[in-house]
User: Fold this.
Amino acid sequence: MRLLQLVALAFLICGLVNLLGLSAYTGSILIFASINILLCLGFYVIFGLTGILSLAHAAFMAIGAYTSGILSSTYGWPIPASVLAGTAAAALAGALLGIPTLRLKSHYLVLVTIAFGEVLRQMLINFEGLTGGLTGLAVAMPSPVEWFGVTINPGNRTVYLLICLLSIAVVVFALDRLRRSRVGHSFEAVRDDELAASVVGIDLTYTKILAFVISAALAGYGGALSAHFVGFISPDYFTFDITVLVLAMVVIGGKRSIVGVIIGALLLTFLPEALRSLQDWYPTFYGVLLLLTLWLAPYGIVGRLEQISFFRKLLAPRTAVIEPVEAARP
Amino acid sequence: MDPIYLQLVVQGLAIGAIYGLVALGFVLIINAVNVVNFAQGEFLMLGGFVGLTFGVTLGMPYWAVLICTVMVFAVLGIVFDKIIYQPLRGGDFATHLIGTLAAALIIRNVAQHIWGPEARSYYEPFQQKIFEVDGVIINPQHLLILAMTVLLVGTLYYFLYRTGLGRLMRATAQDRDTARLLGVKVGSIATMAFAMSLTIGGVAGVVVAPLFLVDLNVGFMAGLKAFIATIIGGWGSIPGALLGGILVGLVEIFATHFFTASFKDPVAFGVLMLFLIVRPSGMFAERVGDKA
Amino acid sequence: MINRRMILALSASVFLTNATHVALAEDKEAIIGVATAMTGTGAATGQQIAAGVKLAVDEVNASGGINGTKFKLLIEDDRTQPGGSVNAFNKLVSMEPAVIVGPTLTTFMLTLAPNIKRSEIPVFTTAQGAKVTEPETGGGWIFRAAPRIDTMIQSLIDYASKEIAPKKAAILYANDEWGKTGYEAFKKAGFKFDAVETFNFGDKDFSAQLLRLKSASPDAIVVWSSLPADAGLITNQLRQFLPTTKVICSNSCAVDEYYQLAKAGGEGVVTVAPWVPGLTPESDDWAKRLKASNASAVVSYTSAENYDGAMIAMKAIASVGDLDHGKIRDAILATKEYKGIVGTYSFDEKGDGLHGGTVVEWTNGVMKPVNAK
Assistant:
C-alpha cells in the first residue's frame, strides 16, 4: 500500500465520521479504537511477526504515558516533543527488557514479562513525587496552535482523531514495508524456527531486541496519545488487563496480518460498548463471544475470512495467515 | 531464633501452602494436556461461595460440606473441559490464555449474580480460634491447609508416577498424537484431569475461606501467585508446586518485613525475574516437554 | 488510487460509526445518569450507588414528579476501569442528561475531571478525596454528597486524641489512594505515629506488618483501608497478635458488611461514618424502603449519600424548570440546610455538601455513637 493512499484514507474516514456527527461518546470511542489499533500494531510486531509472547505491553504504555505526561505537565515541554520522548523512553525500556530475556521461552517469558509490568506499576505507585502515586497525574491537554494563519485545535475530538488516524496510516505503511523487507523476513524466520534462523546467519540477539524496541515504541506512543486525550493517568490504567485485551485483539483479529490486528482492535473496542445494554451481565456475554470467536476462528477473523473466496481475493496475496505447522502442534 | 522470625516462617509456610494448593491445580492440567488454565484462581473464589452455601445457608456439617464441594466441582470440571478446553484444544499458549481468562470473566460475573458483590465470611471449622506455642501463634486452619497440601502432593505424585492411569496422563501431555495412536483415550484423560484440578481448586476455596474470606476478588491474585509457584517449582512438577508456593510465601513475607509492603511486590517479582533469568527451568528439572 | 480494499475499509467504517451513533432521547423527562462500577472489583460500592439513586428517582416519579418534572434513570457501567469510566461518562453525556452521578473512587473522579469540565454537566459524587472538589479539578461542576476526607477524619482525630489519648500509636494503611489520603490527613492533623506500615491490594496475610507494629507496643492502631474485606481480615489477624490494643478504623469499617466479616475481631473497633443506620426514625424508614424496593440492596452510607445527592439534584432541576446546566449548577450550589437521610446538606462554594462525621464504636454487633466529652 502506498503512504499517500493510507493518508487519504485517514482523511476520508475522519471527514466521513465528522459528517455523521461526532458526539462526545462516538468521538472518544473512535479515538480509543485508534489508540488500540496502534497498541495492537506494536503487539503484532513482537508476537505476530517475531513469535515472542511478551506480556509487558501495559508497562511500555505506562512508560510512554508517564514520560510524556511528566515532561509536558511538570516540565512544560510542548506536547509533540514530550510524546516523542515518551515513545523513545518506551523503546529504550523495550531494549532493556529484551536483553535479559533473550534466552527465555513460552511460559517463562510470559511470567517474567508479567512480573516486569507489575514491578513497573509498583514503581509508579511508590515514586510519588514524580508520578503522583496512586492518586494519579493530571496531564496537559493539547492547546490550539497557529500554523500559517490557520488555527488548529488538537483538543478538538475530530482533530485528535485525525492525528491518531494519520499515525495509524504511517505505522501501517512502515510495518507493511518492514514485513516485506529483509528485517521482516528475519523476524518471521526467528518465529518459525529459531535454530534454523541462526544457522542461516540471522543475528538472533539483534533481531529479537529490534522486535522488542519497535513493539515497545508503538505501545509507548499509544500510551502517550491516550494520556493526552484523557488528561489524567493513574497506575490503575496500566494493569495486566490491558495487556490481555491487546493480546485478545491481536489473536481474535488474526495475529499474522496487519489487517487482522486492526479488525481485532476495532471489534474488541466496539463490542463491549455494543453490549452496554446488558448492564451487569455484560462480562458473561463478552466472555462467551470471545470463546466462540476463538472456537470458530482459531486463526483469527482474517484466517476465517481467507477461507471465503471473495475475501481471499481482497486480502491476498500479501497476507498469508494460516500456518499449517502451527495447526499440527499439540 | 527471634520469635518474630519464627512467627514469620510459620505465616510464610501457611500462605505458601495455599499458593502450593492452588498451584497443584495448574500442575495437574499441565501434566495432562500441557496447558495453563488461567481461570484456576477463580475456582478458589467459587469454592468459598459454594462452601458458604452448603455450610451456612444449608447448615451442613463441615465434612458434608467438603464432600458436596468435591461433587459440585467434579461436575464443573467436566463441564469446563467440554465447553472451554475441548473447543480450543490444539490452540497455542495465547489462545488458551485468552480462552481461560474469558472463562474467568464469566465465572466471576455469574458468581456476582448468584451471591452478590459483597464479601462474606465462613469461619468453619475452627471459628476464629488460635493457640500459642512458645510465643508463636499458631492458627489451626493453617495446620489443616498444610496437612492437606502435603497429603495431596503425596497422593498426586503417587497417582502420576506409580499408577497406570497416571502414566497415561503424563504420556498424553508429552505427545498427544502418539498417545492416541497407542490407544489412549486422550479425551477422557483430559476430562478427568479437569475434574480433578477443579476439585482441588474448589476444596482449596473452602479451606482457605477463613483466611481469605469469601470474596469475588480473591481469584486473580491467588492465581497469579500460584502460577509463579508453578513456574519456580518447575513446569509440571508436583513437589515443585508445593516448594515453589512456599518459596513465594516466604519471599513475600520477609520482603514485607525488611522492605515494607509497598516494596514487597517489586522485591518478590524482582527475585522471581532474577531466578528465572539465572535458572530458566525452575527448581526441579522440567518434566513436561516445552513445546508451547 | 481507490481500490477494492479501500472500498471495503470505507464501508466498514461507515457501518461502525453508524453502529455507535446514538439517537437522542425523544421524551421530555429529565435524565439522571449514573456512571459507576456495576461489575469488576468496585462492583460492591457501585451497586450501592446505583441502588440509592434508583430509589430516589423511583420515589419522586411515583409521587408524580417535582413540579411536574419527571425523571429517567440511566445507568452505565464503568467496569472499574479508568478507560471504561471515560466511555461510560461520555455515553451518558451523549444522552443529554441533566445531572450525572459519578463513581466513588477519587482516582476515577480525577480521571473524569477533564471530561466533566469540557462537557459542563453537574456531576454528583461521593468520592471523598480533597482534590475532587478543587475548582481547578472540575471547574466548579463537581458536587460532593459526602464529607470531604479531612473534615470527616477530624471528628475521629478529636475523639481519638481526647478519649483514647494513646501514648504510642501506629498505623496500617492500604497502599492505595484512599489509604494514603487517610494517612496524610492524620499526619496533617498532628497525630503522631510511632510505627507506620502499609499493605497492598490482594494481600491476605498481614502478620509481617502486624508483628512490626507490635514491636512498637502501641496503645492504639489506626487501620485505614478502602475495602471492608481488607479491614475485616486485618482486624481479625490484629486480634491474634495484639489482643488488647484499641483499634481505630477507616469508614470501610462503618458498614454492616465489615462486622459480618470480622465477627469477633470487629468488637470494640472505633470508626467514623458519614451516616449510621438506625439512629433516627427517618433513616430506619428509609432503610426499610430501600429493602422493599430491592431486596439485595445494601443499606450503607454510600447508598444513603447517593440517595440524598440524587434528591438534591432532582429538586434543583425541577426548580430551574429547563435543562440549562449552568442554572442547575447554581441551584445546587444554592442548596442550604437541606435535611437528607445522611444529615443536613449545605453546599459551600467548592461544592461540598456534607461536613463532618459520626464517631462510632462497634458494640455487640451494632454501631454505637460515642462522643468526645
Q: What stands out?
A: The longest helix of chain C spans residues 43-62. The longest strand of chain C covers residues 30-36.
